[in-house]
Amino acid sequence: MFGCLVAGRLVQAAPQQVAEDKFVFDLPEYENINHVVVFMLGTIPFPDGMGGSVYFCYPDQNGMAVWQLLGFVTNEKPSAIFKISGLKSGKGSQHPFGAMNLPQTPTVAQIGISVELLENLAQQTPVASAAVSSVDSFTEFTQKMLDNFYNFASSFAVTQAQMTPNPSEAFIPANVVLKWYENFQRRLTQNPLFWKT
Question: Which domain of life is it from (predicted)?
Answer without folding.
Answer: Eukaryota
